[in-house]
DNA sequence: TTGAAAGCGGTACCAA
DNA sequence: TTGGTACCGCTTTCAA
């Protein structure tokens, strides 16, 4: 039966000491020009009275405009559109501060991202939310922007050796591990499993594969892993390579598609008559997957919660920019496992990207 | 390459029309004393300029203190402690408004909740967050508090025929459905499955059971469901009834424990030497479950995200109290399925309830 | 029916 | 080293 402490204002403490609010303000903000003993007295009574700044007043007065640029690829829109929607949603919900967000697009991961970031050097902004497709290539420009005073926040995938301020993503290693565990649950006998990924230079994809391989080795030693297939996020290549895989010598009984770009892979499976025959775990959720999950042709999909990633990324970046202490945000969301029976909880949001739902 | 619309203030629109801010304010708040045509003109330019009230200024001027009471049981602390922590976390994060939160506890669901709510009639507050254990019994007091001007928000379980303003909970039906699907994946042959629940008068528990039964019938007709066991959230009764169940004539091969109170049930399983022999799906997460999931003795647990429930409940209630339009918040979170391989993502938070993590 | 002006609780600048 | 004060955007009262 306790309650949050009563809060005193700045003039309460000024009145209590018979001094001016200016002085109190100086003390509370560690500004120069206050004698040590008044400073001590102010701090003491501030503590005693339970001073809590009125954030509304503070925000009103400061009225700072934070400018944030969002630099994300157009492809894969299944993933990046809801991510952008999450950013918009969080931006609209900001209270007590002006935030200006601009969105910038380039074709796909690795194609034009460096250049677009480069161009951001001209129009200085407070922070940039972006996805490093190929971290090695981008480290230099990230560091230059950082040196320029721009807070760089990675979303969806990391660039750990750069000077980015932090990361918001799904926990990629765990996604891979889950995929392995799910396949292990369904494949009781000795079999081969395969993975199809986007681009192994992208850390997120590499992490998934690591989690997958490690967990497979631990939980399902009877399943052996075929070499990973890299689709480079190109539909045609994904299709071609999948066909090759399925017609290869050792045929997989289980398949983990670790990129959201799964349509061409599923098409290949369909054409080879293998949909429903082999166990498939996919990544993320979009319209084409729904009937396949409903009919059990896909065992499960690992939803990376792009909307939430965007929302959290935005909130983290703003918090970082406002904080004094500047803790580095490192947030890995738990992926949602979507089966047939919880699918309806996630489908409503496929059309309506402005939804603010909390899953 | 678009940007979020610039927001105009009240004086921007006053200036644009050459009128005073007082008039604009009257229009925007639907107050009397404005001619119809000025009203129309104001609304039009407000729309055109993209008027967005400065919430900081609004809060500062109004300087209202929202008082919220939280009325929740002490038991089951695994669940309600993190839920309270979520509320605290959200309360601390409020910007630009004074919110006072008081916490009130009663022993367990159905024991003293009515009385404690009753006592809230005396100290009027703006809103109450609470869990209706037995909705029928509480409907009357909920309605009286509502009539009294208090916004009643259900958390964790609903009281649909009362005049509560809304609900924040995990999606109970889906929890049950998932439990059934998981058991169906693991039990390929004809078998019996059983459920152990808390109290079927609690809507949340009834919904879980409905989801479980319906999904079992649809996805796994080879599994037959034994009559539900009600533990009434009492450890001894749960233990006794589980023993009876396990020694009964038709022995279950799968078990769904739909209340967070699973320890006595697991103890009974252990003593009967059945842990690891029959498939078990539990609810929520706490220290005792961790080793059982790690060793595969529990197939999975359905995490109802109590921290997030608390956080979202608080935010929804505050939004409701601040909004003019008063949309009824009805939020069902997607439960997280916790397997062995994603368990580490959830364990870190078991000790540290003040954590603000986003899973 | 409308306009003018006083604050809400801080911040920051200028004067003392 | 201090005190005084204008101002942030909005609400509200009083006067016109």
From TrEMBL, chains A, B:
CDD domains according to UniProt: HTH_LacI, PBP1_sugar_binding
One annotated GO molecular function: DNA-binding transcription factor activity
Stored InterPro entries: HTH_LacI, Lambda_DNA-bd_dom_sf, Peripla_BP_I, SBP_2_dom
Domain (HTH lacI-type): residue spans on this chain: 8-62
Keywords of the record: DNA-binding, Transcription, Transcription regulation
Gene3D superfamilies (UniProt xref): 3.40.50.2300, lambda repressor-like DNA-binding domains (1.10.260.40)
Entry annotated with the keyword Transcription regulation: yes
The name this protein goes by in its record: LacI family transcriptional regulator
